[in-house]
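Example record

Each entry pairs one chain with its bound ligand, (2S,3S)-3-hydroxy-2-methylbutanoyl-COA.
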Amino acid sequence: MTQQPSTRYDVRGTVAVVTLSNPPVNGLGHALRVGIVNSLDRALADPKVSAIVITGSDRAFSGGADVREFGTPKSGFEPNLGTVIKAVESSTKPVVAAIAGVALGGGLELALGAHFRVARPDAQLGLPEVKLGLLPGAGGTQRLPRLVGLEAALNMILSGAPVPAATFAGTPLLDAIIEGDLVDGAVQFAEKAVADKLPLKRVRDLKVKQPDADAFLQFARNTVGAASKNFPAPLKCVEAVAASVGKSFDEGLKIERELFLGLMQTPESRALRHIFQAERAASKVADVGDDTPVRAIESVGIIGAGTMGGGIAMSFVNAGIPVVLLEARQEALDKGLATIRKNYENSLKKGKLTQAKLDERMGLITPTLSYDGFRNVDLAIEAVFESIEVKETVFKTLDEVMKPGSILASNTSALNLDQIAAFTKRPQDVIGLHFFSPANVMRLLEVVRGAKTGKDVLATSMQLAKKIKKIAVVSGVCDGFIGNRIVARYGMAANDLINAGALPQQVDAALQKFGLAMGIFRMGDLAGLDIGYAGRKRRREANPAAYTPIVADRLAEAGRFGQKTGAGWYRYEAGKRDPIPDPVVEQMITDFRKERGITPRKISDEDIIERTIFAMVNEGARIVEEGIAQRASDIDIVYLNGYGFPAHRGGPMLYADQVGLANVVRALKRIAAEPGVDVKFWTPAPLLVKLAEEGKNFN
Ligand code: T1G
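Structure tokens for the complex follow.
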């Protein structure tokens, strides 16, 4: 057996077995592409070899093109993927692709270039390129329809979802399911193909079977176009697949290639590829290696059965982890449990949950009124009232009750975790697990690392986050951590715009046009203006000079808390959530401007986006500089998963990269020079200035 860079070659009888080995998932980087072609040439040149099997690892036949090569010249170095697949398909000896684990994107396209395909029944086949803002760019849009028909192929390409190999048993896509040893099965299949002199099946020679192709494609264009307004890739997928019925194979390939290369250049694809990398980067902690020991978390205690505590409890029981749910009073406990049950019953009604699953999950929750129920839990998470005095009582009690080696976590969204840890005799076991409401839905989890938090506690928390299907981002200790600290700045920028001449509905409309799920004033009305007001009062007690949005304060002081009181920045019809601009609020803003002698000026949508988003970016740069966030892409992950930032923009920091950091710096300097603004806040952060001067990006 000899080892090419990233392929292994050995001969069994008269069958050459080429094994892809480019961990972790056989990404089809340049070295692997060279290895495949060299191994193929070697097999073709060896008269003793009658057939060739190409296979990967148990985990992955291949996860597709090497995403780490994207945007680098290497991704286009010959042999590019199309060349490799053409070499396989034009082989004069039968080539059998033997698939275990995943065959995704270019990985599946490679297999489609083989003459035969055999697979484990649980292998996963998919073309997820659309999730990266791309389309299958190595023949997938031309070969798949020839194997499974236009509709099934288009569904697979547009969903990007993997499909178990067993689904294709009996179709031209899959020649055999191998239950036993995959390579042995594939070698036997190859030997039989040679013995039976099976003709070499080249997918390119097949014709697409789709009776009413044009009608179907027109329907596809209409439905796909309507459903993908911010993303160009889905419609291009339809166009590429359309070429598989109307054109020769080679013409179709050419059209596919042109569409693929076009999509590779789009900001939307850049954003989605960035998100793919950023999500994986977020799970890495610079000074906490993969070999850090982790603690077993077999049961969790949650203090507080309110909205947060109930949602957190659901996150754990959904992952099969038992929960002890503690409340101070029976009626609060009953109410919390009833809310959890109602949430599950809603999922049951929508067909998203079975009764058995509902009962299993409810059965995993042990309600209690006493901390004694926490004696054996491995982790406690408090989700009680946001007051440091309450936290002190809770953590002092947890410290007494919890067994050694258990983890004590706070769900606090802004209080000082180091101060909380200091209430205990075991600060190394204290960490922040900041869930976002509703905690059973929102994927984001800010893992707040205290000065004394142990590395194993941090590693345990990061691993646990994956288990409960959260995307964890590590934050240092500061007011608001990453997300809320940025949202405070974002809110200040928006309030400055209101003071200067804009109205809430104009600001929100501009933000929603930019792609935010909800404008900031609507978001305030949803979250409750009393919450923000309490936070500002707390901050003003500590620092009387803290930023004060007068109009926002006056709304709260007038009992206008938002949706929950039927009026806030907007007014709401009873039982409705649609925001209606309110002349009362407009009058309050006008009065405030008069008091301050402000002559309102016309404000454009561009101005609104520049000030609100660049405010986020500037604060984000400071958060990275201070080491509160490990990297800029973590800030994107927080904003994409916790605050409805549009995925097609990739996050505030990637958006700044796409605008150009030098242009962001210029805009911030211009704003900082305006009379009456908070100069310190608008002065560009040093990291931002440095990167801009060096012509670099955040990402
Ligand atoms: N290339 C290189 N590395 C990859 C990779 C890939 N395609 N996919 C994953 N990795 C790395 C990932 O960065 C991480 O690295 C490790 O593998 C584990 O990933 C022409 C152009 C394969 C199902 O979109 O869906 O082909 O952090 O944490 O949960 O048409 O990764 O450990 O250093 O996700 O077990 C199309 C994307 C490319 C597949 C494994 N392919 N990957 O999931 O582990 S475009 C994809 C996945 C293309 C052609 C076009 C998943 C997975 P690290 P992981 P996992």
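The first helix runs from residue 30 to 45.
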